[in-house]
Specification:
Layout: E1 3-4, H1 6-12, H2 15-22, E2 28-30, E3 33-36, E4 51-54, E5 59-62, E6 68-70, H3 71-79, H4 83-94, E7 100-101
Antiparallel strand pairs: 1-7, 2-3, 3-4, 4-5, 5-6
Helix pairs in contact: 2-3, 3-4
Length: 104
Amino acid sequence: MPGIDFDRLRREITMEQVLNLLGFVPTHRCGHQWYGHCPLHESTPQNRRTFSVNVSLSCYYCHKCRSKGNQLKLWANVSDMPLHPAMVELCNQLGKEVPWIHRW
């Protein structure tokens, strides 16, 4: 199976695109920093700001489940798949061509 150019995916797919696919609605915004319910676990109403994401840096962190990473890892974690097949699915969801690497 050919590899995937993950660097290219990180440049081309934004955190906002992934959050939109997940139906994430921030409960609070402060510039590029967004807060809300964690899409990885069930947040309770009193923990409405457990999930923090910086859309300009494309990184997230959940203060409850301690999950962190970039937009690609977020999609893989939410879809409960290894990174490689999750990226194929993400590209399909966004209507993008998978950036395959055929030669190492």
